[in-house]
Write a structure and sequence with these properties.
The complex is a heterotrimer of chains A (310), B (324) and C (355). Chain A is mainly α and 310 residues long. Chain A is built from eleven helices and no strands. The two termini of chain B are 29 Å apart. The relative contact order of chain B is 0.14. The chains are: A mainly alpha (310), B alpha/beta (324), C alpha/beta (355). At the B-C interface, α7, α8 and α10 of B face α9, α10 and α12 of C. Chain B: GO terms for molecular function: ATP binding; ATP hydrolysis activity.
Chain lengths: 310, 324, 355
């Protein structure tokens, strides 16, 4: 016999409403989400840690230019290739620029690229996927083929191709990253909307006079948004890696801009000669950022739907 | 008693096995197969049958959640299907035919408060925009269904099963519909809550002069709330008549088995069992009675001529060759 | 915590021999031998669940006895704890559950303190269960026949080559049409009724002494329900098997059970022979429940409802009687710790002011 018996109890809905229900009026939902968030944070220290790291990154990204000890672009050949010290916490690179300052400014650039790309990708991809999932038929087939075409390419190579064709600007990096992430959102949105299409409240919405578009926009979309937000967070890490990767191979941000990928590229050739810090620090920070986004995505998923806990 | 709605030769077919051009015609599942019946103003009609009989599909075709494959539905003298589906959502008829759904949890948008849910039909179909007016109407409806005012700011997951059921009812009666279709409204509720909701439905019907089409598999509940009963099997009506008469003296073998199967406290009930599995609803042979293979009194004639619905008394109809 | 005196539990006289299949209750015969040993004896069982929103006091001082060959119905609404009781007997409780106190004795074996391997020996062999939603209780990616084979193989009663034949024989016994072909069917290819028959075949494969049926017909059509219940009753009677029928449907319990245990919010509130229970219920909740159930001879007007709601079982200040707050007969004496009293032989009620 199947062993789902033991877990059936947990999924059995309680016949009475949860405590604190209805305390306060409109704020009840916010209060409940906050209480739930605190619970997730305390039960899941890893997520809490990731959230703290995330906020540190955001702070640095926003306030970077004001807190850097040195000008990230100022070169000082006298102080070139110095190991980490009290004056230069992360050491200096081949042109004598302070690596700590460059890493800090790089945060702004990388985060900015990732956030813009992911949001653009989400906006367009979710809309396309929702239409495909809801209406089906021709729109589904067309949009599906479009997504398949993108996915036929190795995505990183496609990004390289787009940037190579259009030029090495930040805008083009954002565009390329957004395009290669489109199929991801199209699929998720299509699947979620397709399932929600048959939900009872959608039928009820039809009966109360909603047109198809209203149903899609006001009823279905707000309900499929939470699971998609999890995808966004997970995707963000990948987008940062993408931007850094493009810069690493020279198809991204151009020097002397401070960006993690470029810095790792610049430092790569110095590892052999012993100047490890040039590639190490930007590399570690890059890793920490991606890791933090992934953990945050898992935590977000717990916040929204505890039954899918990994 | 005036005629409120007239369902005439309604058919709903679902294609099975995909539809790719270049092959011969796909097989069809006959969910609703030539169904005709009427409901008068103020009448409460029960629609019973087991899973797969087509009663839910029929209810959804009448409310135009699903489009029919054939037949007509004349509502207050007007054929509903003459209005294209796209415009029906905003037509005058939309407000007059409403539905209460089976699963109160599933049929409420989890992101809408109770207020939003009940106000939506008022906003969309009655065009009420004024905030105060909406509040007044929603609170009046909440009173009518026995929902406390402070519950209107809650979300569905903060309500009990009975409260959610009331919200669904309030939403459905918001526009004073003429015909209320209830799709198993109490089957997901506990017995004690069910009793309250049934009383509520009976009271509302009197207060608002609505007609009910009560779809259910629970015959005991139908007996309490309905004047007339229609019994369906595999997409066809097999018997229809006044509630008391059908329960006291069912004529169709299927109805007899259905009533005998109700678990009751009388220990000396004879079970007239239906053995075997139901016939397939996919491309059924039109000349064979749907109950052949399970029917205790079937004969050769039943395989050569499918019985039509015929009257055996003023209001009682049966589709069987041998019903006396 | 309130105490239910043990002496009350052992004073249940043995019920009359099991009825013939499908003929419902037959338990009115008051035997005079008071100390027949029950097959299953649950005493003082209290269970809690630790959840994110607090500790749920799911069961409190539940006592249950089932004798060989009888059919006992456990009746209650959602939240009454009847399913929790069933899982507790089988040792299938969720990890969040904690058994605070109580004993579960099955044929001399202490189930509560048994090791997992001992329990696995007993489950499926002497003690079996069939679940609600038959289609989801079966493994969807394994053929129906093979699932029955697994049970036979695990309990080692049948030699390897003979297993398939025995399975087909079992399928025949549960009246599945065309059993040889259905052996190779997957659960999604079978109707709800047929899946339930497969589950019955699995449960009865090793001829258990006790079968627990947890809402076996919820979700099935009325005609299928009747057929399935008759099947269970008939197969059970043939083997003198005891059955626990868990249901929220009073009518079903009335028709198929010798004795009925009524539960409310984690308490056993009344235990009686079926006939006696419906003729003269002693607990106010039972009476209300009977009045709230639609019946053939009842009008809508006489359909009563039960005021109030279930108490929130997460409260730390739960009263001794969990029905008191909804009861119109309540007075000061109801605050005393609850006890299962027996105003008549064969009829126990946990109420200080019984009807």
């Amino acid at each position: 016999m199947s062993s789902t018996a033991a877990t059936k109890i947990e999924n059995h809905p309680l016949p009475f409403p949860p405590p604190h229900a209805g305390e306060g009026k409109g704020g009840s939902r916010r209060r409940e989400t906050w209480a739930h968030a605190k619970y997730v944070a305390t039960e899941n220290p890893v997520t809490f840690g990731a959230a703290i790291v995330f906020f540190v990154f955001v702070f640095v990204a926003i306030f970077g230019p004001w807190i850097v000890p040195y000008d990230p672009l100022a070169s000082d050949t006298q102080a070139a290739l110095q190991p980490p010290s009290a004056r230069h916490w992360f050491g200096t690179d081949s042109l004598g620029r302070d690596i700590l300052s460059r890493v800090v400014i790089g945060t702004q650039l990388d985060f900015g690229i990732a956030v813009s790309a992911v949001l653009a990708s989400f906006a367009v991809g979710a809309a396309l996927g929702a239409v495909a999932g809801f209406y089906g038929g021709w729109s589904d087939r067309l949009i599906g083929r479009f997504a398949d075409t993108i996915m036929a390419f190795p995505l990183f190579v496609l990004a390289m191709g787009i940037v190579a064709a259009l030029g090495n600007t930040v805008a083009n990096i954002i565009l390329a990253t957004a395009i290669i992430n489109l199929p991801f959102y199209i699929r998720v949105a299509r699947a979620e909307v397709n399932v929600s299409r048959h939900a009872g409240y959608v039928e009820a919405a039809r009966i109360t006079g909603n047109s198809n578009l209203r149903i899609l926009a006001l009823h279905i979309f707000p309900n499929v948004l939470p699971p998609m937000m999890v995808q966004i967070s997970l995707n963000m890490g990948w987008a940062i890696l993408n931007a850094a990767g493009l810069s690493f191979i020279g198809l991204g941000v151009r020097p002397p801009a401070a960006e993690w990928g470029i810095m790792v590229a610049e430092g790569a050739s110095y590892i052999i000669s012993g100047e490890w810090w040039i590639a190490f620090f930007p590399g570690v920070v890059l890793m920490a950022a991606v890791f933090c986004f992934n953990l945050l995505g898992d935590g977000l998923r717990d916040l929204i739907d505890p039954r899918q806990r990994t | 008693m005036t005629r409120l709605i007239e369902v005439s030769q309604l058919v709903k077919l679902f294609p099975i096995g995909g539809t790719s051009s270049g092959r011969r015609a796909p097989r069809q599942l006959h969910a609703v197969d030539n169904v005709s019946f009427n409901i008068d103003t103020g009448e409460s009609v029960g629609l019973v049958g087991e899973s797969g009989c087509g009663k839910s599909t029929l209810a959804r075709v009448i409310t135009r959640l699903i489009e029919p494959s054939g037949g007509d539905v004349i509502f207050q003298g007007r054929n509903l299907f003459t209005v294209p589906v796209k415009h029906f959502a905003t037509s005058a008829e939309r407000a007059k035919i409403q539905m209460v759904f089976q699963d109160p949890t599933d049929s409420l948008n989890p992101r809408f408060t109770v207020f939003d849910t009940i106000a939506e039909p008022l906003r969309l179909l009655a065009g009420i925009r004024d905030r105060d007016q909406l509040h007044a109407r929603v609170h009046a409806l909440a009173d009518q269904v026995g929902l406390a005012h402070e519950l209107t700011t809650r979300f569905p997951h903060q309500l009990s099963g009975g409260q959610k059921a009331r919200v669904g009812i309030a939403r459905a009666i918001a526009l004073h519909p003429k015909l209320l279709i209830l799709d198993e409204p109490t089957s997901a509720l506990d017995v004690s809550v069910q009793a309250v909701i049934l009383h509520l439905l009976a009271d509302l019907r009197e207060q608002l002069g609505m007609s009910y089409l009560f779809v259910s598999h629970d015959l005991n509940v139908v007996r309490l709330l309905c004047d007339r009963v229609i019994v369906m099997y595999l997409g066809k009506i097999v018997e229809s008549g006044p509630v008391a008469e059908i329960f006291r003296q069912p004529r169709h073998p299927y109805t007899q088995a259905l009533i005998a199967a109700i678990p009751g406290t009388a220990p000396d009930k004879k079970h007239s069992h239906l053995d075997g599995e139901p016939r397939s609803p996919i491309d059924p042979a039109p000349t064979v009675c749907r109950l052949v293979g399970r029917c205790p009194i079937a004969t050769d004639q039943c395989e050569h001529a499918a019985p039509a619905l015929r009257a055996i008394s003023a209001k009682h109809q049966v589709a069987c060759h041998y019903a006396t | 915590m309130s105490q239910i005196s043990k002496s009350e539990a052992t004073h249940y006289p043995a019920p009359s021999p099991p009825p013939h299949a499908g003929e419902g209750q037959g338990g009115g015969n008051l035997a005079t031998t008071p100390t027949r040993v029950p097959l299953l004896n649950v005493e003082n069982l209290s269970i809690e669940f630790r959840t994110r929103s607090g500790v749920v006091h799911a069961l409190e001082n539940v006592a249950l006895s089932v004798f060989k060959g009888e059919t006992v119905g456990i009746v209650g609404e959602s939240g009454s704890g009847k399913s929790v009781l069933a899982y507790a007997i089988l040792g299938l409780l969720d990890p969040a559950a904690r058994v605070i106190s109580g004993d579960v004795d099955f044929g001399g074996m202490d189930l509560r303190h048994a090791t997992e391997s001992d329990l696995q020996e007993v489950r499926g062999r002497e003690l079996s269960m069939i679940f609600q939603s038959p289609r989801t209780a079966l493994n969807p990616i394994r053929k129906a026949g093979r699932q029955i084979d697994d049970i036979l193989r695990h309990h080692g009663n049948v030699a390897g080559p003979a297993i398939q034949a025995k399975t087909i024989e079992l399928l025949t016994r549960v009246r599945i049409p065309d059993p040889a072909r259905r052996y190779h069917a997957y659960p999604f290819e079978l109707s709800g009724g047929m899946c339930q028959r497969v589950m019955i075949a699995m449960a009865l494969a090793c001829e258990p002494a006790l079968l627990i049926a947890d809402e076996p017909t919820t979700g099935l059509d009325v005609t299928t329900q009747a057929a399935i219940m008759d099947l269970i009753a008939e197969l059970g009677a043939r083997r003198h098997m005891a059955t626990i029928l868990i249901t929220h449907d009073l009518g079903l319990a009335a028709q198929y059970c010798d004795r009925i245990v009524v539960m409310h919010a984690g308490h056993v509130v009344e235990v009686a022979d079926t006939d006696a229970l419906f003729r003269a219920p002693r607990h106010p909740y039972t009476a209300r429940l009977i009045e709230a159930t639609p019946r053939a001879d009842r009008s809508l007007r006489s359909l009563a409802s039960i005021p109030g709601n279930l108490p929130d079982l997460r409260r730390s200040d739960l009263p001794a009687c969990r029905f008191a707050e909804r009861c119109e007969r309540r007075d000061a004496s109801c605050d005393a710790p609850l006890q299962l009293n027996a105003p008549e032989p064969n009829h126990a009620v946990a109420c200080w002011k019984p009807l």
